[in-house]
């Protein structure tokens, strides 16, 4: 494994983990760079990745035809992939949420045979099997799903039969059914959503009836109502939204290299340092250090570039490069502190390959 900062000046290498006081970051980890991991059993993009209580990662869905091999599991201890039970419906553009029980709820999406889906199912890692649950009220793909403090799951927006959706729904893991949760101020799909420290959910960007959106809004699970907040600096489609240790939300990309911070207390935005390149369909992962690892995505073409956001300086530093350029992939934080990047799409088509961004304890 090669160090991600080889050949760079010592000051630049240190800055990749420097949090502003010259001390080791929380968790005392040391960056060691990118390494290849075993290929998945099938190429995938527009899939989901869920870290299970066991530390394994469930990959569900694939963007090809409606072929089987709809799910597989990565074992972070052995670094091997294994097949698991087939979903009831082939799907892509769906969501996957880890419930308090450890089961995984998969909802919506679409496939070639059935089109856009309202169906949902749960995965039980103890048996490796899927079971159907109640269907959503709306057919939807390209939506978001956020697990609330209550254990319920908020499903918001997406693309339906008539276009962008404003309707939201709540999934109850006890009754295994959905109920309506009001309507957003703006219909949208291709947006991002994140749970705030207040228990509310922030939804940002996406595509609406009139095009790309710079709007954002919050959902209050107590009142089951939506309220608009300040606009972002620019429209963002397929951005990422990451809750930082400070309680602020970092929103990146979505059509340009820009990044913004949302302050939940004031419900306002602040522009921070720009990334090195424009991105959408990328990933953003909060690391044990408090930094955010942004990987791949698309500008004009799929990219192999990765970078780290440093909350103290509000700037970005390089984080090496993937072996394979990719967008539409997943990125999962493993119990070891490493990040598993799996699948995605390159100029040659869907990918089965996976890579690890390694974090190892300081000795």
Topology diagram in text:
Blueprint: H1 10-15, E1 29-37, E2 48-51, E3 57-60, E4 71-75, E5 80-83, E6 95-98, E7 104-107, E8 110-111, E9 115-116, E10 120-124, E11 129-133, E12 144-147, E13 153-156, E14 159-160, E15 163-164, E16 167-172, E17 177-183, E18 192-195, E19 201-204, E20 207-208, E21 211-212, E22 216-220, E23 225-228, E24 240-243, E25 249-252, E26 259-263, E27 268-272, E28 283-286, E29 292-295, E30 303-310, E31 315-326, E32 330-333, E33 339-342, E34 345-346, E35 349-350, E36 354-361
Antiparallel strand pairs: 1-36, 2-3, 3-4, 4-5, 6-7, 7-10, 8-9, 10-11, 12-13, 13-16, 14-15, 16-17, 18-19, 19-22, 20-21, 22-23, 24-25, 25-26, 26-27, 28-29, 29-30, 30-31, 32-33, 33-36, 34-35
Describe the protein.
With about 375 residues, this protein is mainly beta. It contains one helix and 36 strands.
Short key terms for the protein model shown above:
363 residues; mainly beta; 1 helix
Structure described in brief:
With 363 residues, the protein is mainly beta. The protein has 1 helix and 36 strands.
What is the alpha-carbon Rg in Å?
19 Å
The residue-averaged pLDDT reads 90
Treating each run of at least 4 consecutive H or I residues as one helix, how many helices? 1
Name the helicity range: under 10%
Please tell me what the overall shape is.
globular
Oligomer: single chain
Residue share in β-strands: 35-45%
Q: How would you classify the helix and strand content by structural class?
A: mainly beta
Measure the end-to-end span. 17 Å
Number of strands: 36
The main β sheet shows up as: 4 strands, antiparallel
Low-confidence region ranges: 1-29
Major sheet strand order? 1-36-33-32
């Amino acid at each position: 494994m090669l160090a991600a900062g080889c050949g760079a000046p010592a000051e630049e290498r240190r800055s990749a983990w420097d949090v502003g006081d010259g001390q080791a970051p929380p968790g005392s980890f040391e960056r060691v760079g990118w390494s290849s991991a075993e290929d998945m059993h099938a190429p995938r993009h527009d899939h989901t990745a869920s870290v299970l209580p066991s530390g394994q990662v469930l990959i569900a869905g694939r963007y090809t035809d409606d072929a089987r091999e709809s799910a597989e599991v990565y074992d972070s201890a052995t670094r091997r992939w294994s097949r698991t039970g087939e979903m009831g419906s082939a799907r892509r553009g769906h969501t996957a949420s880890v419930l308090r029980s450890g089961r995984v709820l998969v909802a919506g999406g679409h496939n070639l045979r059935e089109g856009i889906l309202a169906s949902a199912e749960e995965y039980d890692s103890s048996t490796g099997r899927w079971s159907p649950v109640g269907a959503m009220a709306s057919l939807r793909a390209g939506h978001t799903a956020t697990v609330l403090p209550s254990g319920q799951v908020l499903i918001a927006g997406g693309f339906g039969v008539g276009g962008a959706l404003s309707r939201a729904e709540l999934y109850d893991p006890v009754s295994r059914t959905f109920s309506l949760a009001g309507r957003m101020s703006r219909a949208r799909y291709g947006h991002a959503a994140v749970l705030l420290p207040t228990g509310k959910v922030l939804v940002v960007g996406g595509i609406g009836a009139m095009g790309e959106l710079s709007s954002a809004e919050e959902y209050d699970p107590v009142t089951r109502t939506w309220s608009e907040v300040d606009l972002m600096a620019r429209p963002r489609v397929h951005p990422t939204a990451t809750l930082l240790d400070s309680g602020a939300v970092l929103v990146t990309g979505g059509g340009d290299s820009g990044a913004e911070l949302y302050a939940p207390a004031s419900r306002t935005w602040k522009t921070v340092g720009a990334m090195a390149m424009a991105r959408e369909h990328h990933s953003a992962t909060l690391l044990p250090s408090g930094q955010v690892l942004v990987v791949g995505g698309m500008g004009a073409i799929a990219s192999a570039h990765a970078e780290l956001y440093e909350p103290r300086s509000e700037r970005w530093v390089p984080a090496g490069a993937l072996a394979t350029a990719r967008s539409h992939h997943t990125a999962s934080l493993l119990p070891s502190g490493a990040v598993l990047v799996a699948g995605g799409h390159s100029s040659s088509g869907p990918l089965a390959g996976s890579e690890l961004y390694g974090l190892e304890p300081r000795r």
